[in-house]
Amino acid sequence: MSEQEWLRTAIGASTPDTITIRGRDLANDLMGKVSFTELAFLLAAGRIPSTGEARLFDAVLVALADHGLTPTVLAARLTYTGAPEAIQGAIAAGLLGGGTVFLGVVEDTARFLHSILERLGEAPSEDGLQAAAEEAVREARAAGRRIPGLGHPIHKVEDPRTPRLYTLAAETGLLGPHLGLLRHVAEAHRARSAKALPINGAGVAGAALADLGFPPPLLRGFALLARTAGLVGHLAEEMADPIGLRLYQEVDRRAVYTAEPPGIDRD
Amino acid sequence: MSEQEWLRTAIGASTPDTITIRGRDLANDLMGKVSFTELAFLLAAGRIPSTGEARLFDAVLVALADHGLTPTVLAARLTYTGAPEAIQGAIAAGLLGGGTVFLGVVEDTARFLHSILERLGEAPSEDGLQAAAEEAVREARAAGRRIPGLGHPIHKVEDPRTPRLYTLAAETGLLGPHLGLLRHVAEAHRARSAKALPINGAGVAGAALADLGFPPPLLRGFALLARTAGLVGHLAEEMADPIGLRLYQEVDRRAVYTAEPPGIDRD
Amino acid sequence: MSEQEWLRTAIGASTPDTITIRGRDLANDLMGKVSFTELAFLLAAGRIPSTGEARLFDAVLVALADHGLTPTVLAARLTYTGAPEAIQGAIAAGLLGGGTVFLGVVEDTARFLHSILERLGEAPSEDGLQAAAEEAVREARAAGRRIPGLGHPIHKVEDPRTPRLYTLAAETGLLGPHLGLLRHVAEAHRARSAKALPINGAGVAGAALADLGFPPPLLRGFALLARTAGLVGHLAEEMADPIGLRLYQEVDRRAVYTAEPPGIDRD
Amino acid sequence: MSEQEWLRTAIGASTPDTITIRGRDLANDLMGKVSFTELAFLLAAGRIPSTGEARLFDAVLVALADHGLTPTVLAARLTYTGAPEAIQGAIAAGLLGGGTVFLGVVEDTARFLHSILERLGEAPSEDGLQAAAEEAVREARAAGRRIPGLGHPIHKVEDPRTPRLYTLAAETGLLGPHLGLLRHVAEAHRARSAKALPINGAGVAGAALADLGFPPPLLRGFALLARTAGLVGHLAEEMADPIGLRLYQEVDRRAVYTAEPPGIDRD
Asked: What totals of helices (H) and strands (E) does chain C contain, helices first?
């Protein structure tokens, strides 16, 4: 394989006079002309989004940026306590908790919906979506599997981000098959369960990103991008009002040490 | 100190029905109404930016998002090779190289300008800026210190981001004392040096962020936010066209092993 | 739940006069009396290992510490290039590639063997292990699944770590059911395949750690501990002889930029 | 520059039949023959330590491995809460707080001592060390600088690790100039201060590592290696007894939200 074949990129390049991103001149065609949201879309998709796509993508990023003093935010603020000179470490620590339990839902929901839609073929009808949703819920319940995107520990009746994102998707003409199917999945689940579970914000975000055309394995990346803005906000606050050190001191004061005295260890 | 005094945040909170960010209702007042850029500004500054501020802030984030296959991008793509199931690790690895050598320039330039401006008092005149710039350059040269924000290994004559950001700052009425002083610093340096050094993109970004009112220790955080968008783009490409593994294979094939045979090690 | 019930740890604690780890006095009972390897065992298992266990555990950590210029090592060295003042970031970046593709094999092999052994009950006979191995290989092949712990891209005939670790396990009397079963699995695979695959170093390490009594989900942690020593070695070299920057410069020089000129983007 | 000149390493390499570390055959010359501690020394220093060096190095790693529920440990456990499938992320998060505030003391103390010793030349006398210590303390106090390695928030009178490490250094014949000078520095500080500050464990560890011949910029790497063993221990406990989630729930329950209602934001 020649070099040309293996060491190539279409993302960015520079010469002494220019910087190019996805084939566009950064200074003249992007700075001052596209928003950061549009640039993030361009970087990942290779094209600049339509006005409607940018509006929906913005709403998804806004929806996922912060959810208060979460475990990942606490990890970032505690890391800042030990290494305030290396803010990149605190942000990285805050992102590293973005795994299957929290941000993974964005991706898992999209994967779940995507796998159902693949079987339906292009442009499925509402009836087709409804039947597929009922079948998928039946299967998941029979196998004892949770359905990704449903339920939230705090927002037990309704996640406020969900109806808002459906409204915005409808307004921009981007309420596609993933969002449509997810609504049927929630309804099918409700019809079969004692306890109705709302569509959560991460789930609806995943469906919207999939309808915007992004592949499921990439979606967690956008959730992490959104969270980075939240982490910068929390670190701005931490610089002025340090929770990290005080939280540690409180833990240190209250923690109970339970180690038992050792018996004979050695052979 | 009571709990109320120490475990407090003004960033985000949620109830069963609502999510609040910086005192605003996320679903009703932010989603669909502010851009992600405006939200990032709100999260860090506690207020929504003016239209001009958002435009300049957008341009700064766009300017810093990507610069091709940099060491940090390569680190992210190589990390993805080993842990494709945990994209948060690849993004974190890509951010961790954002230290003093690369992204630190954003912060260092702002600190340098800030320390000069503190001595000048409020609303310094152009003449005052010029005199202070000359004095600071003289001091730095006498002490053999590099002046942060000047010079770039690739953009040796002009960094294309610099004039563009000055134009946008002027258009939005936000060409403040940090940006103004930086221009005088570059001129003062040119007058005293055999080799003119251009203002680099990281430096002008740092000055613009400082003029937007952000404290220097936070600025690297915005550079990292911008880079996260670039990293998501590179990882989207890596999923389809894996440079990481091929780069490793090339290194493995070409690396020369130079260890000498051991003598007698042990006592 | 009272505080005492939830905020508790048996790992470490300190008073003004003492530091305690797993119930032992650090200064008087551990420093100078146990090796770092024994301490790592104590920290994870809650007891000090026997001499034989320490010897086998040492050999596992030694086996996994380094494998040359791997993708994770390159990520660490490239991260150091950008942030030499924050060596913790370079080490973290080097660990973050320790996912399913590379170090995950340690854990996956142990999980695979563990799930077979659970069905066999305590103290399985050699014949029982052999039959179970044949059954497991048959199932895996029928389902088209790879068997974890077999095969290596470089060590195609034999991984030199494997026979050595089996010898050490036998010498220390610690060749337990996981190691025993893994050997039968490799034989059963060889009997059914055109191409014999050797037991790889990560796989044998995982089996040995499981025989030492550690739970599979923790095993990747020991592989990461071992790799940390390798990363410190590579960073010691990087400080004197920087590969990171030169590798980037080579990539920058050779990379081909493939972005196509944009068509009309906007609506 | 030819390839041979730039893409070279003396750390590790492999062929189909062998793995080599620092020029030694891994399977035959290292596994079962050197401890993990000796291997870590070899990786960084390029030579196998003497028995005494290994004993002192072991004691340093043992001393630094754990200090209870520190901010970095809490960050790791909170990260595990969100991403239990990617333990490498939890360990990385736990290392990222190893910056200037905590583990940096190891490095800072060694740098401080090293810079004094450089001025003294080889083999300084006890009187020379004492005079240099007094001078350095005088300078530091005149400049209002803290002296690295002195004082500890918990161990206010004596850090139990300190006398133990001095004893072990003396027993192994490795009480070199850094350790010697540090003792004089503490005495000189005590003679001039109302409040005596003990030599802390990180400081004495830094001095001991410097006497073992390691360069100051590398020392934090060993502290991070030691902490990795502590983190694996804490994650073993977290798997069985999850503090992370419960700590988050407690924070969530008790946190006070202080954001003020917004005024008019927009222009």
From this structure: 12, 5
**Between helices D87-96 and D71-82, what is the axis angle to 10°?**
150
Residue D156's SS3 state is coil
pLDDT in tens, A9-32: 999 999 999 999 999 999 999 999
| Residues of chain A contacting residue B80, judged by C-beta atoms under 8 Å apart | none
Residues of chain B in contact with residue D85, where contact means CB-CB under 8 angstroms, are 85-86
B264 to chain D, any CB pair closer than 8 A? The answer is no
Interface of B with D in 179-238 (CB under 8 A): none
Closest to A200 measured CA to CA, from A239, A165, A243, A240: A165
Contacts with D86 from chain C: Cβ below 8 Å = 99
B2: closest CA among A30, D255, D54, A11? Answer: D255
Closest CA–CA distance from residue B70 to any residue of chain C (Å) = 7
CA angle (A169, A171, A174) in 5-degree steps: 40
| pLDDT of B255 | 93
* Per-residue confidence (pLDDT) for residue D100, from 0 to 100: 87
ipTM of the complex in this document: 0.95
Strand pairing report for A19-21 and C19-21: unpaired
Cβ within 8 Å, pair A96-B87 = no
**Cβ separation A229–B230 shorter than 8 A:** no
Instruction: Work out the minimum CA distance from C238 to partner chain D, whole angstroms.
Output: 9
Q: How far is CA B65 from the centre of its chain?
A: 9
Collapsing DSSP states into helix, strand and coil, what is residue A256?
strand
DSSP state of D28: I
Cβ density class D140-174: b for 16+ within 10 Å, e for less:
beeeeeebbbbbbeebeeebbbbebbbebbeebeb
pLDDT band at C104 (very low <50, low <70, confident <90, very high): confident
Establish if A151 touches chain D: CB-CB under 8 angstroms.
no
Which spans in chain A are helix H?
3-6, 36-45, 51-64, 71-82, 87-96, 104-120, 126-142, 161-171, 177-192, 201-211, 216-240, 243-254
Q: Which chains touch C (3 or more CB pairs under 8 A)?
A: A, B, D
Cα–Cα dist C67/D20, whole Å: 8
User: Taking a C-beta distance cutoff of 8 angstroms, is the pair A108, D85 a contact?
Assistant: no
Quote the strand ranges of C192-258, DSSP E: 256-257
The answer to whether the CB of B82 falls within 8 A of the CB of C97 is yes
